[in-house]
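User: What would this chain look like folded?
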Amino acid sequence: MKGRKVAGFSNTEEEAVQLAHVVPLLAEDMLKAHGGNGSKREDWAPSVLTGGALITGQNPASSGQGAHALLKQLGGWEKGFGPFWGGRSAPKFKQNWPLALDE
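Assistant: Here's the prediction, encoded as structure tokens.
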């Protein structure tokens, strides 16, 4: 993980769900120990980091932003989803989702 941008479940999120004593390794501690470049956001807030081909999220609330990051990386977001929708235009979403991507 050295030098990679990585997001993962924080120690305080593990403590909040009372699992810090159950899991064998805490992701936040391991990332720091192995030189990962993480940026912890507030607990339970969506946070997605991209580093090359690696896309990671801090917690389950990050799944939507993670999906958008994946589509962007595959080139589908800007190109109307191209192969994802059989060449048709992308569906219209009711709202624009703000992406918190650190590229």
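The first strand starts at residue 48 and ends at 51. If you want, I can go into more detail on any region.
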